[in-house]
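ERR on first pass: missing label on line 2. Operator R.T. fixed the label and resubmitted. Corrected input:
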Amino acid sequence: MKSILFNPIALYIFLLACVPCAHAQIPDPGFTVDNTTAIVITDPQNDFLSPDGVTWGVIGESVIKNNTVENLETLFQLAEAHGIQVFISPHYYYEHDHKWKFEGALEKLMHDIGMFDRGDQLNKEGFEGSGADWLPRYKKYINKDFVTVVGPHKVYGPEQNDLSLQLRKQKIDKVVLAGMSGNLCVESHLRELLEDGFEVAVVVDATASAVAPGYDGNVAAEINYRFVASHVYTTEEFKQSLK
Amino acid sequence: MKSILFNPIALYIFLLACVPCAHAQIPDPGFTVDNTTAIVITDPQNDFLSPDGVTWGVIGESVIKNNTVENLETLFQLAEAHGIQVFISPHYYYEHDHKWKFEGALEKLMHDIGMFDRGDQLNKEGFEGSGADWLPRYKKYINKDFVTVVGPHKVYGPEQNDLSLQLRKQKIDKVVLAGMSGNLCVESHLRELLEDGFEVAVVVDATASAVAPGYDGNVAAEINYRFVASHVYTTEEFKQSLK
Amino acid sequence: MKSILFNPIALYIFLLACVPCAHAQIPDPGFTVDNTTAIVITDPQNDFLSPDGVTWGVIGESVIKNNTVENLETLFQLAEAHGIQVFISPHYYYEHDHKWKFEGALEKLMHDIGMFDRGDQLNKEGFEGSGADWLPRYKKYINKDFVTVVGPHKVYGPEQNDLSLQLRKQKIDKVVLAGMSGNLCVESHLRELLEDGFEVAVVVDATASAVAPGYDGNVAAEINYRFVASHVYTTEEFKQSLK
Amino acid sequence: MKSILFNPIALYIFLLACVPCAHAQIPDPGFTVDNTTAIVITDPQNDFLSPDGVTWGVIGESVIKNNTVENLETLFQLAEAHGIQVFISPHYYYEHDHKWKFEGALEKLMHDIGMFDRGDQLNKEGFEGSGADWLPRYKKYINKDFVTVVGPHKVYGPEQNDLSLQLRKQKIDKVVLAGMSGNLCVESHLRELLEDGFEVAVVVDATASAVAPGYDGNVAAEINYRFVASHVYTTEEFKQSLK
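pass 2 clean. output:
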């Protein structure tokens, strides 16, 4: 406060950027894909993206409106074409997760509706085609070598899995982020990757969020991406940026 | 997906909770203050809460509308009256932080406007009354024994400081969260505290967020608190809950 | 330094505890099992504990000397008898882990010898009876409800998995730690659990460490457990403490 | 286990590397300083390195034997000469840290003897020349621009401070580690930096550890550095490697 008043350069920048502050634009630091950049996709799984998934009733409309399913496929294709590694951070709930003694609101909902259920990490019975399985159209990419599937996250962020380590073990410093759902796992990944020291951009229409009465997750996600990411792309803008 | 269809109890819960899903209410797990509960306040500093602070132009209107300054004072008073410990997670930027090679959007803005600036952790010159200092009316509480000031966070969340450790070293399991700004540091603290295994409630009108053209941080914060916290209080509701 | 000279109580404690400092005993804070206590076991897997495992040549002698296999079984039995939850933090390496661009010394060795290899988390082919599988005699415990298997760690500590979260979701504050190997995964779990705010005791003879020419991991583990844990038990002492 | 028997290449590597395994050498992955490399120094403070410090009685002999004080100064000089950034992770205990409800063994000792005591982060009274202050001969380096002092750690590792973030914000991927004390803060920093995805080498004689009856921290540190780091240097070897 004082410091800015007595620092002519800071004051000048402040005046340029902030007057009138009530109309301040949020700066856009920008993002450039280079050979330390990877794409990270959260939860490209049936329970979010298939009309048969347990959340389709609250999220299907957003998925359709954003064209999320096709946009995520475009990201896989662009990655393969341009030699960009893709890391997938999935969401699985095991039987023991249903015995948690407390949960936040959406954690409770996910457990109540059996979302992402899988017996345990050593059990694949009933997994094929379940809500926890990949959306079928993505399997042909995920099975290839340019895609790495890290361990499951358990709340919303990558704090419980090895995503950041796997990125660093490949000397990745910058992340283009997309997936499901926008204001929960994508946003928590965004925030944690920033704290872990990555540069992060988001592809906003390769995400989608749940809509509950009075609470539209898409609105929250779009605001917060703009506040904290280095840049927010549409899928088309990201595609153009690679040319 | 499959699992729910063949599991009559899960299906029943699903039908109760989710049909029609498009109108699904978000569950409210609830929150009860007990002797493992603390209040955590982020950034109760001049740069956010004083009309002289560097962000007042973008955040002052929200602070006034929410009555944030008084509501935070009420939280300090309730804590003292009910023997609840308060932990403050402040935000300081040192000279070397201005040499970062990359920043997200609001990180860039905060550095450009000299927000929370302080020479370094061994330098108090010019600190008194600066934008990084406490709002004066809170000092009489912060100087008391029921308040612990942890290290500074550096992006938005407590990943870079000792907040979680200090809470655990006092056998705290549950957190009532408030402070500044709503969709940045408060929300990042909320998300990280959840990942760290705390139960967390938010006092929504003891926060406030920046408003930029087209991007209202208050809207994002309110949606996301409701999605992920165990409960969202107003200050008045929190006060009533302690009776 | 100065502070102690001018603070009579601190000086008195210092003199009692530390003179002559060269002969200072390390304090023993002690540990009591209560209903917030769990047992955590790292890597109870064939590659460490079976004579057919890939590390038996360097670690078998320590396993036999400590009676590690039987002592770990005793911990499972004590846990079941006393209603103590057990959490297992396993070690799996997937195919993509073999493509890391850099590794520390033992990471390199583990990859070179194919330790804990498993195709990926969605692949159980060849797992049964492999080096990554549980030691057979532990399976009857691990399959029961008092045991929770968390995600795999990837270097040595629980930073890459959900161990701390799973403990907190069961309101666990205190950990009795054992498993393999002593100076690597056990010690890294010990150090990280301390940073995460748990009270931790170690059962030293329910661990064992590798011995390389000039470098005995058991020696390092025993010194460091004593320096940093709240208490170091033998299995017999731990058993007696539960009576 | 099985996998290696049926995999001729892995078996061959295994035979080369490990037969007879009882005599297996630990591999040495090596380390090369490049423009993504920084030096990290823990706790270069009076309480460890000055004959007036509170731990000199247990650690002084090791400091003298290793020539630690001079070797750390050599690292500062080499860094300045070769344009390598230095990051210091200090150790401060504030008044509220003395109210922790539980502590591991050395945490308890450090608090009992008033080690690294400082009122709080907004209080510099009595700091100059105290046990928490820098060893005087290092001040001329620490005051220069090539040195960054991050927040204090509170147990042993950088989990409670912003070290990893500050490194990443300077695009640092590799760390040369040294400082005090060898088997506590240096080793915990080593382990956590590995989990955070840094390549790490240690300069073993620019560290020193406490010796308690029956427990020589230097022995533990030297074994564990060799097991987990990418390379272990002496100060002289590190100097030669820069030529």
